[in-house]
Amino acid sequence: MRPQLAPKVSNEETANEDLNWEVEAVLSWHDEDAKAAIATLLQDCRHLRSQLALAESVISRGMVRGWRPSFDRPPFERR
After folding, report:
1. Cα separations (Å) of 77 from 10, 12, 15, 16, 23?
2. Hey, is 48 helix, strand or coil?
3. By the 8 A CB rule, do 37 and 30 touch?
4. Radius of gyration, CA atoms only, the chain
């Protein structure tokens, strides 16, 4: 007997479910205070940008074969 496969779900649906779960987790962590959640996420972005700038300044170009980190992500489509 063949094992039953799970129904096919598109990667986009899975990504949306994961994102929704993460949003709910962030809001829950901040007791449903959206402004506190946004402030924390902006502070995280600021910290990660400074870490990326530091890493960019010390990474050898030969080590990464010309790759350079990007500080901005490509634009996304709203859903």
Report:
1. 17, 12, 13, 12, 17
2. helix
3. yes
4. 19
Digit-coded pLDDT (tens) for 3-59: 555 555 567 777 788 889 999 999 999 999 999 999 999 999 999 989 888 887 777
Whether residue 69 contacts residue 52, with contact meaning beta carbons closer than 8 Å, is answered with yes
Alpha carbon 59 to its chain centroid, in Å, reads 23
For 35, the 3-state DSSP assignment is: helix
Residue type present at position 52: L
Dihedral (CA of 31, 36, 42, 44) sign: negative
CA pair distance 33, 8, nearest whole angstrom: 36
